[in-house]
Amino acid sequence: MYKRRSFVFGLGVLVGAGASIITEKIKQPMADMWQKIEVARRDFTVVGEQPLRERAQAKGLIYGAASSYQELAKNVDLANRFAAECGILVPVNSMKWQELRPGPKTFDFNQGDWLAKFASERGMQLRGHTLIWHKALPDWFEANVNKQNAEQVMLEHIATVAGHYAGKMQSWDVVNEAIFPANGRSDGLRRTPWLEFLGPEYIDLAFQAAAQADPQALLVYNDHRLDYDTPEMEGRRVAVLKLLEGLKSRKTPVQALGIQGHLFANEMPFKPKKLRQFLSDVASLGLKIMITELDVTDRMLPGDIAVRDRLVAGVYQDYLDVVLDEPAVIGVLNWGLSDRYTWIAGVRPRDDGMAVRPLPLDQDFQRKLAWQAIARAFDNAPSR
Ligand code: G3I
Q1: What angle do CA 220, 324, 128 make, to 5 degrees?
Q2: What is the whole-number distance in angstroms between the Cα of residue 49 and the centre of ligand 1?
């Protein structure tokens, strides 16, 4: 009896394994075929040569990107292309604690000031990123900040930094990535030094201090992984809404949600209705919305550049068609403008070792299909 049962069991395992190999064998070519159909059916036609900043402005929107002193100061070509395409600049790192704060009592505004001057001279707006975050903290932070002095350290930082740029900022990411439901708190907040030292009120405190230091800047709560139809991201959307509702109920001066928009091609299900509902829910709180760090990770796409660029452009098209349909959305920024400078190259590289292609301009600052998809989205967007 035992022999017969183990034989039947073994047969079952074989059939099961065979079936899964067969489905894999069929599934993959089907997926590739679908990608080719997907690629072929897209229309990325754009009328005219106007830059993205003009196409956005024509609809009452702002378009721009992140860059750095290192990229813009040493590369005139990029500087010119950047100013041509972007109506707003956000420093990648120059306004984070790590770059701004050489010591517990010192500030270094050199790079931030250079970027602010670059933006102003080129007719671009400026946005600040980020006043309070759990990352990019300077080496001295851990040994020098504690429960007793954290509030004073935080308030001094915000007053000094937001005060230094007061009147020059279109917006500030006042608090970045404070939500992390996986930490298990009922409020969905991320366990950070700020939360540990000051409790959940640190977020209210930060916004109040920023409003006092720069009453003209739009004050933004910025977060990521809010875009796809997965249990993790649904949990994050719920937690972000809960946070924003709480802030608004306490009359905390938060004025906008920043959705980073680090997108993935072919990795997670994208459900337009889900994202659209989330945008409506945020807008119903009286908040504006900005897409603050848009790019597309292409590691799961075929290596062929023509196919890959079309699929990446399709991700941009599908996402921006949803996002720009929401009137509360006032701006879209890429996290970088050219594939030559993208954080994705180092953090989400391709298995085949090919250069990643997440952004609107290629390595030589030439427009790609992604640029056309963004241009087309602005051209088709309802006016604000
Ligand atoms: O400048 C130092 C250099 O002197 C040193 O030799 C080198 C090696 O340690 O580090 C350099 O600093 C690095 C900095 O980028 C500039 O290249 C930091 O270590 C590195 O952590 C930092 O990474 C940045 C990261 O945020 C953390 O601040 C990325 O460039 C930046 O693209 C990324 O951007 C974040 C947003 O702020 C928030 N949303 C997600 C997004 C992507 O992770």
Answers
A1: 25
A2: 33
pTM of the model: 0.92
Cα-based distances in Å from 222 to 70, 95, 165, 274, 275 = 24, 15, 19, 19, 16
151 by Cβ neighbours in 10 Å (0-12 / 13-18 / 19+) ranks as middle
CA–CA gap between residue 232 and residue 177 (Å, rounded): 15
> Which residues, in sequence order, are CB contacts of 92 under 8 Å at separation 6+?
66, 67, 68, 129, 335, 336, 343
Mean pLDDT over 106-125 rounds to 98
- Residue whose entry in the numeric block shows the structure tokens 């109040």: 208
Tokens of 31: 């997926």
Q: How far is the C-alpha of 367 from the C-alpha of 319, rounded, in Å? A: 19
Predicted confidence at residue 359, as pLDDT, reads 98
Angular region, 104: left φ>0, alpha ψ -120 to 50, beta rest: alpha
- Ligand 1, atom 20: nearest CA belongs to which residue? 136
pLDDT band at 1 (very low <50, low <70, confident <90, very high): very low
Residue 43 CB neighbours (<10 A): 8
Calculate how far, in angstroms, residue 90's C-alpha sits from the geometric centre of ligand 1.
Answer: 14
Q: Give the binding-site residues of ligand 1, using a 6 Å CB cut-off.
A: 92-93, 96, 135-136, 224, 260, 293, 343
- Which atom in ligand 1 lies closest to the alpha carbon of residue 136? 28
Q: Which residues are catalytic?
A: 177, 293
